[in-house]
Design goal:
CATH architecture: 3-Layer(aba) Sandwich
CATH class: Alpha Beta
Helix content: 25-40%
Number of helices: 6
CATH topology: Rossmann fold
Structural class: alpha/beta
Radius of gyration: 16 Å
Length: about 180
């Protein structure tokens, strides 16, 4: 008997960029003290959780490769985000990050064309291989053309978030699951 997911066990995934989608992009955010949620972000995550979707963050974090902060600091921030989301009734199923950058001053993070760094689809492809995801039903929400390019290259629908309230944006785009909307 195979452990491979069956078509009926596959779940849609909401892939989210971090800076500019989940939190205000204030330039290389690495500390909880500097972190500010985008309006409606926690509510959107919780709504997709209630509807049975996987919620996965795919975030370029070149600030690590550039030496502005460490991967440990980024993981601590992600843990604080997760803790805060629980209080709002939501959770992130997985965080994927790409600290590599072609011009990284740190050798360990320098790569001419990092496969995980968006617009390359590596983070999304890894998630698709590691989670029981229904690719056709999934969507990526990003705030940059490189996010949408990564989604396209991974075979996932991409939607450009231009700011405002994330939950309202997703509702307006008819993406917020019906069963999870507030009455």
């Amino acid at each position: 008997m195979s452990d491979a997911p069956t078509a009926t066990s596959l779940r849609p995934a909401l892939f989210l960029d971090r800076d500019g989608v989940l939190n205000e992009d204030r330039g290389y955010v690495s500390r909880w003290e500097d972190f500010r949620w985008i309006a409606g972000a926690r509510e959107a995550v919780a709504a997709f959780n209630r509807a049975g979707w996987l919620v996965i963050v795919v975030t370029n974090q070149s600030g690590v490769g550039r030496g502005f902060y460490t991967e440990e600091a980024m993981h601590i921030l992600h843990a604080k985000m997760a803790e805060d989301l629980i209080a709002a009734g939501g959770h992130i199923d997985a965080f994927y990050h790409a600290p590599q950058h072609p011009e990284a001053p740190l050798d360990a993070y320098r790569h001419p064309d990092p496969p995980d760094r968006k617009p390359n689809p590596g983070m999304i492809l890894r998630a698709l291989s590691e989670w029981p995801i229904d690719r056709a039903a999934s969507v990526l929400v990003g705030d940059k053309p490189s996010d949408l390019e990564a989604a396209l290259r991974a075979g996932v629908r991409g939607v450009l978030f231009t700011g405002g309230d994330l939950a309202q944006f997703l509702a307006n785009e008819a993406l917020l699951p019906q069963s999870s909307r507030s009455p």
